[in-house]
UniProtKB/TrEMBL annotation:
<dbReference type="Pfam" id="PF19278">
    <property type="entry name" value="Hydant_A_C"/>
</dbReference>
<dbReference type="GO" id="GO:0006749">
    <property type="term" value="P:glutathione metabolic process"/>
</dbReference>
<dbReference type="InterPro" id="IPR049517">
    <property type="entry name" value="ACX-like_C"/>
</dbReference>
<feature type="domain" description="Acetophenone carboxylase-like C-terminal">
    <location>
        <begin position="526"/>
        <end position="683"/>
    </location>
</feature>
<feature type="domain" description="Hydantoinase A/oxoprolinase">
    <location>
        <begin position="217"/>
        <end position="504"/>
    </location>
</feature>
<dbReference type="Pfam" id="PF01968">
    <property type="entry name" value="Hydantoinase_A"/>
</dbReference>
<dbReference type="InterPro" id="IPR045079">
    <property type="entry name" value="Oxoprolinase-like"/>
</dbReference>
<dbReference type="InterPro" id="IPR008040">
    <property type="entry name" value="Hydant_A_N"/>
</dbReference>
<dbReference type="Pfam" id="PF05378">
    <property type="entry name" value="Hydant_A_N"/>
</dbReference>
<dbReference type="GO" id="GO:0017168">
    <property type="term" value="F:5-oxoprolinase (ATP-hydrolyzing) activity"/>
</dbReference>
<dbReference type="GO" id="GO:0005829">
    <property type="term" value="C:cytosol"/>
</dbReference>
<dbReference type="InterPro" id="IPR043129">
    <property type="entry name" value="ATPase_NBD"/>
</dbReference>
<protein>
    <submittedName>
        <fullName>Hydantoinase/oxoprolinase family protein</fullName>
    </submittedName>
</protein>
<dbReference type="InterPro" id="IPR002821">
    <property type="entry name" value="Hydantoinase_A"/>
</dbReference>
<feature type="domain" description="Hydantoinase/oxoprolinase N-terminal">
    <location>
        <begin position="15"/>
        <end position="195"/>
    </location>
</feature>
């Protein structure tokens, strides 16, 4: 962590990343000289821009500058927001009207009929976002080749407009049969809606998700119109507020694909911000891979409400376009992030059968864990850490919170220990064991279940709570090394500063590999290339600065799911088949050597590279660090309670090395090291931990 700047120091070209989480809003300020500062303030869920401005004010004060002068020094202000996701989770989106093809009024409610858990026949689906009386049919039909069978009924559209006006509809979605082949009818309807309701949000399924599959296409369009007004209004208001406060550069946003873009470029695709924040982990992994000396990494970012897992295999992060948010299916190009409701504020409880359960409910920013003293009464993971000596009473996170361990003890006693007939310490241990098991399963979801052995990866801790769990999770997975960034509590905010500008596009394509002309495939991919390049040009990049990648969605004829397969130009069928079969073997364990392979879609992405963050290099020391104190702490199930050396991160420098058990208290996080594990502070000032003999390795 760099020292705070003195008045008069050069601050031109500052880069800021802001991650608004459920409990804290994190701001990272990177200076051209490589120094990095972190500012943490409590989130304000009802008005998240207040927390952003509070972080700006705090940073300006620490830099010894007026707020306007500080913001004028900023070259890039990058924001990750959960407002789109929270709007869906909280059910607080816009009142949406949906126009569909006559006879297909109920596809949104019928869904696909697939249950995520086939053994659970009772759990209800998420409520339909558009009630049936606002799902209005219009005549007009395209055939399976996109040719018009029946012209669009102008009268039906006019009737829908009258109904929407009477029902005070706030935004609109349009999803017509086979519109992914030709969006002419949808564009005609949109023109009429925009003429009648110029201030309202309109989404065309043919633009939002041009895919085969009316349900997924329509669900995406509806969700986009549901979260769009609130999300984009917030972002425009924040951009205006920052500009009025002195920011001269545009507000930039992290998209689901891990790339950044401007507010205007994403204004009509709010669903592209559903993973804004967690997707920025790709920027952090790229940044830290250089220091680690390895690019096969798994990040485990644990904040107050959730854990987000991302896997990078030899520098490559998987992408998908199928998301499920709050029970709704969405199509949006996205980095593959697996999220579970397990964070520092996750609430523990005992059910009617006397079983200890953890989550997914969380305490949030307010009232938060019981030990925060904000009025929370239910025990959380953070309270369990406090009971087991990992936190002591006093201020944390630069004074943003003050922990009272006695409150944690009382909450666990009242709600867990007394009901189970065990001691408070045993109850706290049970909470953490449940937490660690959930984290292990979350990592295995992206590793073992995808054909990747987690033992071959380094586990990277992120989030304020990640470093308290990462060593034990790594031990259970058989990982040999753990990497903990010194500012892991602002992992995603830092990742935003290491993110590139990226745009994706896709087009439906139908054909059998080997039968379809390679020239037709190349022509389709080059058309998509120009579309994504145009977006980069509007962002200020030059065409020769863009990195373009091509992908085709392939599957064996008769299969339900596609595999996105990277391809190079010119297209060679044998090479594409070989790549597909290698990926199919890894995912499913078999191939059909003579099976017909179907092409389902073409994709292109264009990336504009941002300037890399400088890697800090601290002066090396060979001295042996001295702990500030020794504290009695419960380490893990094998070691139990031990006398643990406790270090202040401010006293540790590059070159310092020692063995666990140890506790390291940093500005944004606390790191627990197991008995016998070896810690080295690397050149960048971060912690590399070599695991002691691992029985699971």
């Amino acid at each position: 962590m760099a020292n705070r700047r003195e008045v008069g120091d050069s601050t031109e070209g500052l880069r800021i990343g802001v991650d608004v989480g459920g409990t804290f809003t994190d701001m990272v300020v990177a200076s051209p000289n490589g120094s990095i500062d972190v500012f943490k303030v409590p989130s304000t869920p009802s008005k998240p821009d207040d927390a952003v401005m509070a972080a700006v004010e705090k940073a300006a004060e620490e830099f010894g500058m007026r707020q306007d002068a500080f913001l004028r020094s900023v070259s890039h202000f990058i924001h990750g927001t959960t407002i789109a996701t929270n709007t869906a989770l909280e059910g607080k989106g816009a009142r949406v009207g949906l126009i569909v093809t006559d006879g297909f009024r109920d596809f949104l409610e019928i869904r696909r009929g697939i249950r995520e858990n086939p053994w659970d026949h009772h759990a209800p689906f998420a409520p339909v976002l558009v009630p049936r009386y606002l799902r209005l049919p219009v005549k007009g039909r395209l055939d399976a080749q996109g040719s018009e069978l029946q012209p669009l009924s102008v009268e039906d559209v006019a009737e829908a407009v009258r109904t929407f006006r009477e029902e005070d509809v706030e935004s609109f979605a349009i999803c017509l049969m086979n519109a992914f082949l030709d969006g002419t009818h949808e564009r005609e309807i949109a023109a009429e809606l925009e003429s009648e309701f110029p201030e309202n949000y309109v989404t065309l399924s043919s633009k939002a998700a041009p895919i085969l599959g009316e349900y997924e296409r329509g669900s995406t369009a509806v969700m986009n119109s549901y979260v769009g007004p609130r999300t984009i209004n917030y972002l425009r208001a924040l951009e205006t507020r920052l500009a009025q406060a002195g920011l001269a550069s545009p507000l930039l946003l992290v998209q689901n694909n891990g790339g950044i873009t401007s507010v205007e470029e994403v204004a009509d695709r709010a669903v592209n911000l559903m993973l804004s924040g967690p997707a920025a982990a790709i920027g952090s992994l790229n940044h830290f891979a250089e220091s680690i000396g390895k690019n096969s990494l798994i990040s485990m970012e644990i904040g107050g409400t959730s854990c987000d897992v991302m896997l990078m295999n030899e520098g490559h992060v998987n992408y998908t376009d199928r998301l499920q948010i709050a029970g709704y299916d969405i199509v949006s190009p996205s980095v593959e992030v697996h999220t579970i409701g397990a964070g520092g504020g996750t609430i523990a409880r005992v059910d009617e059968a006397g079983l200890l359960l953890l989550g997914p409910e969380g305490a949030g920013a307010r009232p938060g864990p019981a030990c925060y003293g904000f009025g929370g009464e239910h025990p959380t993971v953070t309270d369990a850490h406090a009971v087991l000596g990992r936190f002591v009473s006093g201020p944390y996170a630069d004074g943003a919170i003050t922990i009272d361990a006695s409150r944690a003890h009382d909450a666990i006693d009242a709600h867990i220990a007394s009901r189970l007939g065990v001691s408070v310490e045993e109850a706290a241990i049970g909470i953490l064991r449940l937490m660690d098991q959930q984290l292990v399963l979350a990592v295995q979801k992206l590793s073992t279940e995808r054909g990747n052995d987690p033992k071959l990866f380094d586990l990277v801790a992120g989030g304020g709570a990640g470093p308290l769990h990462v060593v034990n999770v790594a031990r259970n997975l058989g990982c040999q090394r753990v990497y903990v960034p010194r500012i892991s509590g602002a992992f995603c905010a830092l990742g935003m500063l290491g993110s590139n500008c990226r745009h994706d596009n896709m087009r439906f394509f139908r054909g059998i590999l080997g039968e379809v002309s390679p020239d037709d495939l190349v022509d389709g991919l080059l058309d998509l290339r120009m579309e994504v390049i145009d977006k980069l040009l509007r962002e200020g990049f030059k065409e020769d600065e863009a990195i373009v990648q091509f992908t085709m969605d392939l599957r064996y004829v008769g299969q339900q799911w596609d595999i996105p397969v990277p391809v190079d130009l010119p297209i060679e069928h044998d090479r594409v088949r070989s790549t597909f079969e290698t990926m199919h073997e890894k995912l499913f364990g078999h191939v059909q050597t003579r099976g017909a392979i179907e092409v389902k879609a073409l994709r292109s992405s264009a990336t504009g590279l941002m300037e890399k963050l400088m890697q800090p290099r601290g002066a090396q020391t060979a001295a042996t660090p001295e702990p500030g104190e020794t504290r009695r702490i419960w380490v893990d199930q094998k070691s139990g309670w031990m006398d643990v050396a406790c270090y202040s991160g401010a006293t540790l420098a590059s070159g310092h090395a020692f063995e666990g058990p140890a506790l390291i208290e940093e500005q944004t996080t606390t790191l627990l090291v197991g008995d016998g594990d070896h810690v080295t502070v690397d050149n960048a000032g971060n912690y590399l931990i070599m695991m002691a003999d691992n029985d699971n390795a």
